[in-house]
Amino acid sequence: MHGLFYRLLNLRCFNMAKQENWIAPSILSADFSQLGKDVKDVIASGADVVHFDVMDNHYVPNLTIGPLVCDSLKNFMVREGVNAPIDVHLMVKPVDRIIGDFASAGADIITFHPEASEHIDGSLGLIKNAGLKAGLVFNPATSLSYLEHVMDKIDMILIMSVNPGFGGQAFIEQSLEKLRQARQLIDTSGRDIRLEIDGGVKAENIAAVAAAGCDTFVSGSGIFGKANAADANRYDSIIKQMRDALASA
């Protein structure tokens, strides 16, 4: 029930319109001993979305965080007045079982990998029926052809620019061409679908990523790894660098 309350509370806080660029810090690279503070500070510095990476040590070779952490973080954000959507990227297989748990925990957007679902349309339906925004995630070698029959059911396309599993990897340049292809599909559809990228994004390459058609930029070590922990405004500089680069794209 409280998941619905969270979404009603945050309805005015964001929309999925594709014209606005979103910077989405991945908390996978945050300091988990002070996760709430890191999230509060990075949003205060001008970031837009909290990107929440969920790995199961099955679909990907790593184990991270689950719905209990999402629920705790959402409670903290509501209590502290941190108005930002939580974008949950599920790297788990099978995916259907966990969708309801994250809906109840306060997620606003849930994306998953088509390979992790037995019935992609059904998994998207579970997300949409819970009142959340839904999307598909494409690994570097995964074809965009999965989109052919579900463009009317998705709100986000996430292109992986690294192989999923670990933060801090180098950006795969071929991802730029995949972004361009996805942008063409979105524009042809005429729908308000956000185009997100995740992996190796930083201030130095974010303009090239934007030029390829991206509007939502996940960055983990590119944000959290650049900050001075002793600085109260430690994320201001890196977020400003990203904004300046986007403005020039």
Structural description of this entry:
The chain is of the alpha/beta class and 249 residues long. The protein has one domain (2-6, 19-248): TIM Barrel, CATH 3.20.20.70. Helix content is 36%, strand content 16%. The chain has helices at 2-9, 35-44, 67-80, 96-104, 120-129, 175-189, 206-211, 221-224, 236-248, and strands at residues 22-25, 50-55, 86-91, 109-112, 133-138, 156-160, 194-198, 216-219. An 8-stranded parallel β-sheet has the order 1-8-7-6-5-4-3-2. Helix 6 (175-189) links the parallel strand 6 (156-160) and strand 7 (194-198). Helix 2 (35-44) packs across helix 3 (67-80). The longest helix has 15 residues, at 175-189. The mean pLDDT is 92.
Features:
9 helices, 249 residues, alpha/beta, TIM Barrel
Q: Topology of this structure?
A:
Layout (H helix, E strand, L loop, with lengths): L1 H8 L12 E4 L9 H10 L5 E6 L11 H14 L5 E6 L4 H9 L4 E4 L7 H10 L3 E6 L17 E5 L14 H15 L4 E5 L7 H6 L4 E4 L1 H4 L11 H13 L1
Parallel strand pairs: 1-8, 2-3, 3-4, 4-5, 5-6, 6-7, 7-8
Briefly say what this structure is.
The chain is α/β, with parallel strands linked by helices and 249 residues long.
Could you tell me the radius of gyration in angstroms? 17 Å
Strand order of the main beta sheet, please? 1-8-7-6-5-4-3-2
Q: For this structure, what is the CATH class?
A: Alpha Beta
Level of helix content?
A: 25-40%
